[in-house]
Design a protein that fits this description.
Elements (H helix, E strand, L loop, with lengths): L2 H7 L2 E7 L6 H10 L8 H12 L6 H10 L4 H17 L2 E8 L1 H6 L4 H19 L2 E9 L6 H8 L2 H5 L2 E7 L11 H9 L4 E4 L9 H8 L3 E3 L8 H10 L3 E3 L1 H6 L11 H7 L2 E3 L4 H4 L3 H12 L3 H13 L5 H22 L2
Parallel strand pairs: 1-2, 2-3, 3-4, 4-5, 5-6, 6-7, 7-8
Length: about 350
């Protein structure tokens, strides 16, 4: 037994995972056949997108997620895909996930908002009943569609969303596509209703300064940060405002920013910030939460205590009700103790 097997067995929480980037390749292939996707596209275009299933083009991350998700044309497609994603979480012993999902993709595809909500929650409920994995929803606003922000803010704060396990709103996509002030109105609207907000920051080299993002989007949590560990001013801002962050180290390797996970500054982030690890787009980045934790633990020579802290940080910064967080933390800590005896002694 080892730290690797301990991480595999431990209960986990993922608070940054995108549904559209989590669709298993088998699920996509099944949908392609069922919905005869090839017939609706030029052969060359179809071959190109199918080729990306096995060899993603990291210059087209957002396009890959959007195109594959757009092939889910019917409510039963969406429900089954949610179920498949939930089963993948169960196999990693993820007990709770905040699943980022873009309602605009599916409403643009012809589903009414209520149909969309019924479909995703049908899949969610089957996962909860069958595998005891809870998934709550964070609606994402596509960065390239600022006019859609008001609609998604309205959906996020609706009674249908509250009843339908929607717990937050996020901005998604490259920061250099549109400035954050294009989304201020939408994020202010959900902030007034006490709905949590998530924003990317420093995810591209020419990103807006961190204080600008914080002022415009009022985020409860930040994701996709890069270069933050070597920026004392940014670290100070995070500490002063007590804003937690979620990172995906493999993302930076896939994007060519680091050659190996040993170059990722996880020890600095653990010491200076409230940090957790998320899978982000696991099928596109070819990773998952368990692999992220194992890879970073080896590369940064983390201890079991460090790994426990990363998992518990994710739980602490989740949008679960306080009593649910407390109960889950007690359960996790008890299981950590039992698993240490089995795997680390």
């Amino acid at each position: 037994m080892s730290l690797d097997t301990y991480i595999q067995a431990m209960p986990k929480v993922d608070v940054h995972i995108h549904f559209e980037g989590s669709l298993p390749r088998d699920t996509i292939s099944r949908i392609v056949d069922q919905n005869d996707i090839a017939a609706s596209m030029r052969q060359r275009e179809y071959n190109e997108w199918m080729g990306y299933l096995n060899k993603p083009d990291y210059r087209k991350i957002d396009d890959l997620a959007r195109v594959y998700a757009s092939w889910l044309k019917y409510p039963e497609d969406l429900s089954r895909a949610v179920y498949d994603v939930g089963v993948a979480l169960y196999k990693q012993n993820v007990r709770y996930a905040e699943m980022f999902i873009s309602p605009a993709i599916y409403t643009d595809n012809g589903l009414a908002f209520e149909q969309f909500m019924d479909a995703i929650n049908d899949g969610r409920d089957k996962v909860l009943r069958g595998w005891k994995v809870r998934m709550d929803w964070v609606f994402t606003v596509p960065r390239d569609r600022p006019r859609k922000g008001d609609d998604i803010a309205r959906w996020t704060t609706s009674a249908t969303a509250r009843k339908g396990n929607v717990v937050g709103m996020a901005l998604s996509g490259r920061e250099d596509v549109q400035p954050s002030d294009q989304f201020t109105k939408a994020f202010q609207a959900v902030e007034r209703r006490d709905v949590p907000r998530v924003a990317p920051a420093r995810s591209v080299t020419n990103a807006e300064p961190l204080p600008v993002v914080l002022e415009n989007l009022l985020p409860t949590r930040l994701v996709d940060l890069w270069g933050i560990a070597t920026d004392p001013e940014a670290l100070q801002v995070l500490a002063e405002r007590q804003i937690p962050i979620v990172v995906t180290p493999t993302r930076e390797m896939r994007l060519g920013r680091i050659a190996h996970l040993k170059e990722y500054p996880m020890r600095t982030l653990l010491a200076e910030t409230k940090v957790a690890i998320g899978a982000n787009m696991p099928e596109i980045y070819r990773t998952n939460l368990t692999e992220e934790l194992i890879g970073v633990a080896k590369a940064s020579e983390l201890t079991a205590d460090d790994v426990d802290k990363l998992v518990l940080n994710a739980l602490d910064m989740s949008f679960l009700p306080a009593d649910a967080r407390t109960s889950m933390r007690e359960q996790f800590e008890a299981e950590f103790g039992e698993l240490r005896v089995k795997h680390l002694n």
